[in-house]
Structure formats: structure tokens, C-alpha cells
Amino acid sequence: MKQTFALISFLAATLAPMQVGAQTDSLQQFADALQKLTPFLKVEKEEKGEYEKAFNDYYVRRINQNGLADWGAYATAFRQASAKGVPRAPGGSYKRVGPWKELGPWNLDIPYKPYYGSSRPTTGRITAAAWDPTSLTTYYVSSAGGGVWKTTDDGANWSPLSDTATWPHLQVGGIVVDPRDKNKIYAGLGDSRGFFRFYSSGVMESTDAGATWTLNATPAGNPTTRMAIDPSKGNVLMTTGKSVYYDLYSASYKAEAGKVYIKKPGGNYVEPAGLPANTLWLGCSIGAKDRNLKRTYYVAGLQLDGAGGGTMQVWAGKDGDNWQNLNVPGAAVAALGPSSGIDISASPANVNNVYVVNGNNRRVYRFDLAAATWNDITTPTFPVDLSPGDSYNWSQANYDIHISCSYTPGGNRDVLYCGLITFASSDDEGATWTDIGQTYMAAPMTHNDQHCAAYSPLDPSWVLFGNDGGVFGVKYNKTTRSWSSVLNGINHPNVAQFFHGAVAMNSKDNVIGGTQDNASPRSFGASSPNDAMAPSLGNWNNCGGGDGGWSAVDGSAALTSYTAETGELWGTTDGWTIRATGNGNASVFPIRTPFWPDGPGGNFLSYDSNSFVGAGSLTHTGATLYYAGYRYLFRYSRGNALDGNFSRFDNSASGIGGGDGRPRYRMGTDDALYQSSGTSLPRTNIGFITTVCVAPSDPATVYVGTSDGYVWVTRNATNASLHGVTFTRIDRNLPLRSINEIVVHPFDSEKVWVVLGGTGDTKDYVWHCPDTRTLFGSAPWINLDSQGLFPVCHNTIALDPKRPLSTFYVGTDVGVKMTTDAGATWSSITTSASLPNVQVNKLAASGCTSSLTAFTFGRGAWQMPVDNAAIQGFGFSPSTLKGGDGTTLRIVLWAPAPIFGATIALSPPNPYVPVPGLVFIPPGMQEAVLPLGTTPVLAPTVVSITASYAGESRVTPITLLP
After folding, report:
1. How many Cβ atoms are within 10 Å of 291's Cβ, its own excluded?
2. How far is CA 89 from CA 405, 490, 852, in A?
3. Which contacts of 405-408 are long-range, i.e. CB under 8 A and separated by 24 or more positions?
């Protein structure tokens, strides 16, 4: 039924402009609209089961040669990223890099309503919220990868509180404010339910309302799941653990135990006695005062049995002591899975009421403390299904699950807020429920995937809640027993989590990237009222849907770009002009990819067991060839059509694998030529393509890297028959870890750089091959990472377009480092250059615009200048001469023109020195020399000529004499 409502809503919006006319035209429009809707319903539902792919993509890239990840290495990397340092600058007028400037996405539009809400903006995953106890307009939120934010004007504007070197990392799982002292704030680090679930540096604490912070490292290593604070005593109650995840190696769900901590004012975090060991603690709460002025502390979790199952636990202790098991129903967990989650909330007004949401048996309960009884309050009005019987709302309760209890003004009735995929509420202790989120319905109020809720101590009818789309809010009306949206459609913190991104070569404001659960934001730099926050990038629109992925902008046609989503690739030739507003457009074309749900076999993603985000590359001239890599490698030729199909490299002669095209999986020392140090990887058949790179100077040369350490090259990729394309392995002497990105010299297709994954491995994350044709001789890969800066996963590398052999930038899990001497020395350009300690997934450098853009996983997109100018020299010779004589105009670029050339505009037109309006410098060339005539003059005349290129203008004069 819910699918029907979504269908009606989408078709109504899509067909609204349709005029009464030929029946054939109407049916065609209907069919077109239905085709566009299909991925929204089909992919959104299925992608919830694909979260395990996203996590394993993340995890596999971070294991070392022993098949393990060293999460303790992050502590070292965080210190290094926070260190002050300035990169060494070579001679000449090379400008020091920085500072970084935040681009957004600000005011991000939704791609469509189901799952995203009714109106802009959307942003990224919020993990917890907390109110200032003295103000209804001041509150705080924490995010999965973007730190802690504060607003003092009811969400109109937000300030990041964690963009400083004091913060070791920006993954935050909980936040509380002391109700007795608004200046005391506690933020628990770690992202237990997301990717960064294996590590935490501890708890950040502030005594001045977030102005400054100190790290308390006592709970280090244990990611925060929930936090609560005692309104009477100021005690902090905290649960930690490493939540349920799918382990690819064992093909089963796993979890890791955590701890419970209590911190009393003036004391440290201590573990209370009497709680069971080996438990993943997932929720906590503190109840109302009893007649003895004591409060009951509650914790909930999953005790692991070591055999793939466990027991749901709910424990209670007066003021945190003398803990007792409350024996929650549905406790037995036969096997961990995507619904193995639990959360708890005690009534702040009724000392006897405690509420639990149990994903294991998909029920909500109220516990009566006085009677010691459990009551099932999962009534028929509680939201359950997308389609009848599928229990869709419960389908990922290890990820999005929370319950929070507020109360009506006067305290006579509990008001419940229960978040799963949608957001439900009850004001009668669960007798009836209202789906106030309706996130997968035709008219949703908010984004899907709920993670937290918090009521205001000043007025409990005001409630903040956080989800994968940002922070929202509702206000409860006691008289009408209804809820209204109060924080939908205003600004959000910029906590977007980019998987990938791209920037046009000739415009640093033409930006697009794929994000976690917020589709593919894009901006052309349109002005908006938000320009004060992000000049020229105040309004972002959205393309695609679901989780965005790999993105690209055509180098020669900046309005042509691509972005991936789960199950589909979208492209445009007019810059998403209409598609971004949700109306559809003939020039926005879906490309039927090999991982489409109705591919061979008929099962979702059965054709290509992908890596969730995938990898891709365009040819650099015309973008007519596109390569996509998941488990297989594919080629798509656009030609003159706007849609088509991918073809798979499936012949054994390709060299990528056997006859089915599947890559061969390297199991360690498989032959003498490719012998690697260390032990072999303890896994098989789990590899996937992580990076694809077409050589900018030669579209026939394509490099492919995989998660299990392979590097392949073909030099005949443009062969008309895929059966004739041959690949050769070139990963000789590289460490046996994930090949996270390959880049190629802009004018030499055989010079290659790679960055590797892993954690804890030192001094070997960046490698270079000067000539891939000599790898079988005496010139193996060269290690450029001898300094050992940031011993954690390296995700991306960008060559400086003006000095590609000596200067490059590398994005890691904790920020960006750079070298100006080909890797002899490295410097951090993170907090010292105004970039937070954030995971950077993609860097894009542009010589045309002298800029470097970073797409981060938690703090959106950032950009910095990396050089002085695009035009190095511009002048006449001679510059003073007799009118009527000849002269020469010389234009010199800072770097060779990119692969599609450089076009310089000259102005103004004048009768004295007839300069051309446009001057083209071919690819690889660095200057243009123009012999020019002049006109006789009767008096000394000075003419000024302006050259404009890549957003920069240079002026030069010429003086004509009589």
C-alpha cells in the first residue's frame, strides 16, 4: 500500500505538466515516469540490505597483510594530523598552500520525497542531540563523521565546535549537557553504528559551553553507543561497544563487546560492578526520582555467546549501584543479524515506567518497575511494513534504532518517540502510535533512518531528533494530541559524508559527489542567501538517489557529468538543469549498468557482487568511453545515444581472470615474480575493483586496481571487441594491501602512482612506477612514503598539475598530507591549514583553476588554492613601438594545457592592436606566441589588453608612438 502512495505522488509530480492530447503520448509519459520511479522504490528498499557491502568496502581497505586492521594506529595518525607544519616550497613564486575553505553542501535539496522528506535541506547522519537547559533556541548535535555543532538561534545558523587540533577525530556517538550547568558538555567519541566502529579516543569534555575542549582518554578504544546524565547529581552514564556488522570472511554477522562507564563530578570514568561481561552495550537511561530521592540507572545491550548469537540484556541499578537483571522478553538471539539492536528510555516523570525497543523480536515494551512486569505495546498502529508482511521498518535495527521518553507539560502522561527507518510517537504509553516521520510514504515529514531524540528540559513538548539526513524537530500539542514539524526546511550543519567527488577542470565551483544516504549533491556556484556562509556555493541541488557513489565531470564539456547510485548510473549533458528539481529531463539519461536489479539471474546485484560505491573512469576527451569496476570490469560507449548498456570484459584473453571475467584473487606468494613480504591474505573470492584510471594522454591505456592487491594495465582498451582487449599484471613488489587509487601522469601514460590501504603499516602507503613497461626488468615500484606520516588508510592521491613529478597531495583517514620533493619529505596540511581531522575520500586538483578540492566523509567538501596563478606570463615585445609596426604578444601558462587544451579570452576589441578574441593553446603546450600588427596613431596611445583564463585575469599595456 505504501508503494502505491509513493507511486501516485511521484507520478502526480511527474505528469503534472502533461497536456490533454494523444493517448499514445500520455501512455509514453506514464511509462517514462514509471521507469524513473522504479529505482526509487526498488533500490531504496534493497539498498538497506546492502549496508553490509558498504561496511565491508570500508573494512577490506583497512586490513594489513595479515588480514587484520590495526585500529590503535589511529592514535598516532591523529597526533600527526594535528601537528603544525608547513610544506617545503620549491624555488620561484610557488605559493604556500592553504587555507582550506569549506564549500558545503549548504542548503542541500532532496532528490525526491520518499525516504528524504518533503523539503530541503538534507545533510548527513546525526547521532545524538542535547539541549541547553536554559534556552529553547540553543542546542547541540553530534554527527557520525563531522564532530559536534551548536546553534543559538533555533537552527538558523550552526557553528562547528570540533574543527580544531584539540579534537583527535570527528566520529561522535553521543552528547549530553549537564542540566545543572549549561557550560558542562560531554561528547563520546566513536561511531559504533557506522563505519568507524572499532575505535574511539575517549570523551571530549567542555566547561565553557563548547568554546574549548579537553580529551578524557579513560574510555578510549570503546566507541560510544549512548550517553545519559543524572539531572540531580550530574553523573554521566555511558554505554559503549562495537555494533553488529557483517563479516565478509566468515560470511556471518559479528559484534564486539563494550563497557559501561559512570563518571561522577570531580571523578573519572569507572566501570560499575555487577554487570555481565562480554556484552555489547547499546543503550542507557536515567529515571525519575523516587520517594527516597534516588534515581534508577538503566543499561541495555547484547551479551555475546561466542557462537554467533547471544542474549538481550536490560539491567537496572539505584544511582548506578546494585545492578539487577530485568529479563527483557525476546532475549534469546539465535544468530546475530541486521535487526540485532536494542535501546532503552526511562520516563523522566513516572518513576515506574521504562521503555525498551527490541529489534531482535521486533517489539516495543513498557516495564512497570513497581509490578516488575513487561507489557508489549507494539500495537497495530505501530508502523511496520513497506509492503504487507515485510517488516521493513525493523529491517536494520542494528543501525537505526532508538527510543526516547518525554512527557506532557504537567507531567501526567509519558510521550514516546521510537525511531527505526521511520519515526513514530505515542502519548498514551503505547496504546496507539502515530507515524510522524512517514519516511517511505508519499508525503514524508523527514529523512529516513532515525538515530536519536532529545526533549528540552524547559519544555518537554519540544523534541529534537536526528537521522541520516540531519537534525529535525517536532512540537507536541497536548490539547490536540498531535505533532507538528518545527525544524524541517531550515539549515543543517554541514556533515555530509562523501564517498567520492569530482570538479570541472575549468570551474572550481562546478562540483559533484556521491554521499552516504543523501544522493549526489552538485553545485555550479549559484548565489543564494547562504552566501555569507559559503561564498558562491550557497545552494546545492541533488541528483540520483539513495547512496551516491563514484562521480565525474567531463573535462571537455563541463555540463556533461555522471554520478552513480546503488544499482544505476545517471548522466547529463546539460548540468542536471531539470533533473535536479525532480521533473525529469530527456538529456538526463539512466545507463543500464550490470548491477541493475533485473540483470541476468533476476536478483538484485546478483550479476555483479559489488563494493557498494564502486570505481569508474572517463576518457578525458569527449567522455564517450566510461569504465566501471565492481567485481567485474565493464565498458560503456555513449556514442551519440543518451542511454545504453555496459559490456563486460569477459574473455580469458583479457588477463583479468578466467573465462567468466572474474578477477583472480591473489593468495599471497603465488609466484616468484610477484612475491610479496609478509603472510598471505587469509581469504578468497572477496576481492573487488577499487580504482580505474584512464591515462589522460592515451584513452587506450587503462589501469585497474583491486582490494586484494592487484594492479592491471591494458594498452588497447579502445579495441572495438572486448574479446581483443588484453590486460597485464604490474603489481610486482607492491605490498599486499588494497590498491585504493591509481593516478597517471597527465602527458605520460606509463608514469603511475598508487596509494594503498591498510592500518598500522608504516612507510609504504604511496608508490610510484616511472615506466610500467619496465616492471619486468630492473625498475620495480618505488616507495615514496619513507617518512611514515599517517600510518592509516590512504584513500586518494592527486598530482599537482603544474609539478606532477614532484608535488602531490594524499587524502587519508585523518586528513591530507603533501610532498613537494617527490616523497622525500611530507607535511600535514590538515588542521595547520584549517581542515579538521576528517577522513578524506577523494582529492581533485585542477591546474586550470589552481585549486585542490577535498571530499570528506563527514564534513562535506573543502577547497584550497595551491598556486599563484594560471597565467604565468603575459606581455608584448616590444611593448613600446611606433604605430603601424609589428609586435609579438606572448602568453605563458603556469602548467601545460590540460588534455582538452586551454582557451584564453583577450579583450577588449580595439582598432589599434587587433588581438583575437580567443587564443587556443593545445594540450601539453604551455605558451602561445602571436605576431600582431598595429595601427598608426597621431598621438601617443596606451592600450591595455586583458587575458582571462580559469577565472583569472591578467592585464598588460602597449604604448604606440606617432
Report:
1. 6
2. 57, 43, 16
3. 405/285, 405/345, 405/346, 405/347, 405/348, 405/353, 405/355, 406/348, 406/455, 406/460, 406/461, 406/463, 406/476, 407/347, 407/348, 407/349, 407/350, 407/460, 408/460, 408/461, 408/476, 408/478
Helix (H) or strand (E) holding 283: strand 279-289
C-alpha–C-alpha distance, residues 74 and 94, integer Å: 32
Beta-carbon contacts of 201 under 8 Å, excluding residues fewer than 6 positions away, are 74, 75, 78, 168, 169, 189, 215, 217, 220
pLDDT at 253: 87
- For residue 187, the one-letter residue type is A
Residues paired with 871 in a beta bridge:
893
Pick the residue with more confidence: 450 or 47?
Answer: 450
CA angle, 339 then 345 then 351, to 5°: 150
pLDDT at residue 645 in the model: 54
Say what the pLDDT of residue 710 is: 83
Query: Which triple of cell numbers denotes residue 402?
Result: 532508538
Task: Please answer whether residues 639 and 625 qualify as being in contact, where contact means their C-beta atoms are separated by less than 8 angstroms.
Answer: no
Per the CB < 8 A criterion, the answer to whether 90 and 803 are in contact is yes
Cell digits of residue 518 = 543523501
Select from 361, 342, 483, 347 the least CA-distant residue to 424.
483
**pLDDT exceeds cutoff 70 at 2:** no
Distance CA 350, CA 416 (A): 13
Q: What is the DSSP string of 36-89?
A: HHHHHHHHHHHHGGGHHHHHHHHHHTT--TTS---TTHHHHHHHHHHS------
Q: Are 268 and 203 in contact (CB under 8 A)?
A: no
Mean pLDDT score of the chain: 81
Entry pTM: 0.86
Comparing CA positions, the residue from 182, 137, 180, 136 lying closest to residue 155 is 137
Residue 385 φ/ψ, nearest 5 degrees:
-105, 150
Q: Are 363 and 391 in contact (CB under 8 A)?
A: no
105 upstream amide cis, omega within 30 of 0: yes
Q: How many C-beta neighbours within 10 Å does residue 273 have?
A: 9
Nearest-10 crossing angle of helices 2-15, 23-47: 130
Cβ neighbours for 625, distance < 8 A, ≥ 6 positions apart: 618, 619, 635, 636, 637, 638, 694, 699, 717, 718
Q: How far is 426 from 415, CA to CA, in rounded Å?
A: 6
Three-class SS state of 774: helix
Give the per-residue SS3 of 378-435: CCCCCCCCCCCCCCHHHCCCCCCCEEEEEECCCCCCEEEEEECCCEEEECCCCCCCEE
Percent composition of the chain: helix, strand, coil (DSSP 3-state, to 5): 10, 35, 55
